[in-house]
Structure formats: C-alpha cells, structure tokens
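Course exercise 7: structure representation. Students receive a sequence record and must write out the corresponding structure in token form. The form below is the worked example handed out in class, using glutathione transferase (225 residues). Read each field label carefully; the graders check that inputs and outputs are placed in the correct fields and that the protein name is recorded exactly as given.

STUDENT ID: A-19
EXERCISE PROTEIN: glutathione transferase
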Amino acid sequence: MEEVKLFGFWPSPFSRRVIWALKLKGVDYEYIEEDLPHNKSNLLLKYNPVHKMIPVLVHGGKPIAESLVILEYIDEVWPHNPLLPTDAYERSVARFWAKFIDEKTRPMWEFFHKFGEEQQKEIEKNMEILRTIEEHGLGDKKFFGGDTIGIADLVLGMVIHMLAPMAEVVGVKFIEADSFPRLHAWVKHFSEHHVIKDNFPDYNRVVEFLKIRREYYATLSHHDH
Ligand SMILES: N[C@@H](CCC(=O)N[C@@H](CS)C(=O)NCC(=O)O)C(=O)O
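STUDENT ANSWER:
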C-alpha cells in the first residue's frame, strides 16, 4: 500500500475532520504535527505552496490540499464506510451541506476575537446560522449521513471541539437542548461515536490554548480604544 501522511495542527478543525475520515475508514497514516504559529515546515510549504496551510494529505508522494477536497479524495480511494451516498442527488445534497457548514462555521469564530457590542452581533449571527442548520439541515436523521457519519457531519464537528470551548472561555452558550433540539441530539450522537470520541482533541488543552488567544485579543482590543 502507498504511504499516507497527514500534515495537521492539533486544535485545527480542518485537520481534525481528515483524521476522523481516515480513522472511520481504518486507513493507516503517519501524522505530522506542524508548528503553525511559529515555524511552518519546508515540506508544508512545498506541498501546499498556494495556501501554505494545513491540512495536507500526501498519498504515495502526491499532495492534496483543502480539507473538503481531501475528504472526497479519501472517499474515492477507500470507498468502504462511505462518507458520501451512492445516489447522485443524495450526494449533491451531502455536498451542499458540507459546503454550507464549511463556509458558515469558520466565520463563527469571529465572536471570539471581539468584545462588547461587536461580540454580541457576532453571537447573534452564529445563532442564525445554527437556526438554519437546525431547521433545514438534519431533518429527523441521526447524522447528515443518515445512520452513519457523513461528510457534512465531519465538517460540523467543529462546533463541538472549537466553538463549544470558545463559548466556554467567553461565557456564552450556543447549542442548548431547548433552543436547538436537533443539533443538540446531533452533538450527543456525534461526540459519543467511538471513532470520534477516541480521536478527539483534549478538551481542557483546547480551553487552555483558547484562553491564551482570548487574552491576546483582549490586549489588542484594549489598544484599539
Ligand atoms: N479551507 C482550508 C482551511 C485550512 C486552514 O484554515 N488551516 C489553518 C489552520 S486552522 C492554517 O493552516 N493556517 C496557517 C496560515 O494561515 O498561515 C481547508 O479547509 O483545508
């Protein structure tokens, strides 16, 4: 079998979704942790010269960048335990939600960089995005992928290991049982899945990492005013 390598950064939701996909498929790979904040490796710059970002999957020496592209590649090369449905229409629906969640969840971090009224506005925007996913995304399914985890679930995983600890550090709550019952049930199903649970970043370590970031943003915001 050709060698598989993954370049990632431990708290990043973008490399995390790829780790989960490889684990769901049972693909052996070598994980290479990048020192993103301080010192990107020459290999990362060589493999992703366009964005210079993780994740990069290297399969048989050939690099693939952009997490959604990587997830689709993984599903094509290792088709067992599929992440996408076989039916063309169902596949397009799965891709629609993966794209929507990918595009909408990254800006959800904005509240973490802001304070006061600006922070409140971002929190409200986040609630609207969650409302859209709650009302139009999941329906009565357990996962976006139906009974099993699919591509959109892997992308939405970010709300558990990044958005939730960010909310904890700031002192707000997003996905609660009474306001978002479907998403709340999804959080439980997804985080209790054995592959996800066994390959989850250390929650307390993420909180500590985020506290330092939050203090840094607070210093910046203090200088602004
Ligand atoms: N759209 C990209 C986003 C990846 C991304 O934002 N990676 C961040 C880490 S969370 C990164 O490598 N940042 C390094 C930099 O911006 O210089 C994907 O889905 O793969």
